[in-house]
TrEMBL record:
Pfam families: Glyoxalase
Gene3D superfamilies in UniProt: 2,3-Dihydroxybiphenyl 1,2-Dioxygenase, domain 1
Upper taxonomic lineage: Bacteria, Pseudomonadati, Pseudomonadota, Alphaproteobacteria, Hyphomicrobiales
InterPro entries for the chain: Glyas_Bleomycin-R_OHBP_Dase (IPR029068), Glyas_Fos-R_dOase_dom (IPR004360)
Organism: Rhizobium rhizophilum
Domain Glyoxalase/fosfomycin resistance/dioxygenase positions: 14-113
Stored SUPFAM superfamilies: Glyoxalase/Bleomycin resistance protein/Dihydroxybiphenyl dioxygenase
Designated name of the protein: VOC family protein
Amino acid sequence: MGHSPKAKAFYDAVMPTIGASCVTVTAAETGGTYEGAGYGVGGKPSFWIGIGARTKGSLHIAFVAESRAAVDAFYAAAIAAGGTDNGPPGIRAHYHPNYYGAFVFDLDGHNIEAVCHKPE
C-alpha cells in the first residue's frame, strides 16, 4: 500500500517552489483504508497522490504560484526531477494579460501547471 515512491520524489522536489509542503498519511492513521501524500500551503493539503489505478484520459492540474519567479522555479524543478516540457514559463495572453504559466508532464504523464495571475 502507499503512493508511488517516484511520484512522491517528483512532487517533493516540485511543490516547495510554490510554497507547498508534504503531509504524509499512513495506513495506520486511517485504519488501513488510505495511505498517501498530500501537498498544500500551511500544512493544509489540497493535492493528494496515493495508490490506485492510473487515471484514464486527459488530466490537467493547475497550481497557483505567488510570483512569476515561483512559476520559473516550479518549471525548472519539474524538468530537473524528470518531467517533460509542455510549455515553458511565459505570458499566456489568450487567457488574460497577466496569465504567467508553465506546463510540464509529470512522471505519470499528467499535465501540471504553475500559474501566477499577478502583474509582474
